[in-house]
Write a structure and sequence with these properties.
Elements (H helix, E strand, L loop, with lengths): L4 E2 L10 E3 L6 E5 L6 E5 L5 E5 L5 H9 L4 E5 L2 H9 L5 E8 L3 E2 L1 H8 L4 E9 L3 E4 L10 E4 L1 H6 L1 H7 L2 E4 L3 H10 L5 E5 L1 H7 L2 E4 L9 E8 L13 E9 L3 H13 L5 E8 H4 L3 E5 L5 E5 L1 E8 L5 H11 L3 E10 L4 E3 L2
Parallel strand pairs: 2-22, 5-6, 5-7, 9-21, 9-22, 11-12, 11-13
Antiparallel strand pairs: 1-17, 3-4, 7-8, 7-15, 9-15, 10-13, 10-14, 16-20, 16-21, 17-20, 18-19
Amino acid sequence: MSTTKRTHFQVPSLPAFRTMNYRRNYVKILNSLNGSVQIEEASRNLKVAYQGAPGAYSEFAAKTACPESVTIPCRAVINVISAIETGRADLAILAVESTMEGTAVRNYDLLLQRDLCIVQEINLFVQYCLLAMPGVTKSELKRVISHPMALAHCGRSLAELGLDHEAVDDTAGAVELLLSNRMLDTAAIASTRAAALYGLDVLAHGLQDESWNVTRFLILSKNNPKIAKKRKIRVKTSMVVAHHSGTLDVLLKVLSTFSSRKISLTKLEVNSSIDNNGPVKVLDAHEGGSVKEYPSVLYVDFEGSIDDQKVKDAIAELSKLPVYVRILGCYSADPTIYGLQ
């Protein structure tokens, strides 16, 4: 996780929190070209790739967004991207930011380098639990294993437990490792869903340092879905502004361009070569799909469709600058925060 200059990730208010049981059994996908909504009955043939093992938070997010889909576990994020590019999956889901850690810059950077578009977002309330083999008590534990981010999110709780910790590929993968090796002196940090799936005991709930822990996931598509039905809902657009000039000048221009048209920004973040340990690579679809390097890029999310005239005018104004503007997707802005219960 890189340290970047960022605005805070804003999450909907607590009353917006609902569980999966209230979600209607269809997939909501936005056509990334015109911002109109497709509502199609979820197909059992729809395949969604995610990073982790069965029981991972990413898998739950995928199942929440696409209830009847077939999920495809992948070892690493790059394998998730590969699955959709090679046709093994129809969609891919990536965690891109959380209220505790900010933006997962590497995941965003991978998106910039690929010809994929965002078609949906979903926010998931993440509660970390301490899982152990059946019958094992806290006093018998010597170490904890989990995904590096989960371990970082639970730093205070781990310090209080006085246990060593070790990072593995993902939370559900830690559970698999625990079970396959019958580790009686080791616990895993994962979800209650993973505990139920693998038959482990939950020794503690809510290990995260901050009680309000929400992760934002993006669902990606290689092809723009066909429109089945249209209706008016809240729409969000994501784009990147890549440039070689001074970051402050571009930042101020982006702010004034959207502010003058009363377009609300929901995200404005700078990712520079200093933060990235090297130039930021961005695919330029307009020039034969070549990847270009930039010293700095701005990630911009705003409310509105790219079919709105004022949005078209804003993008046209920015495009007159010595910058490269790429639309990453136009999709439904679901305010719901889904839980695991």
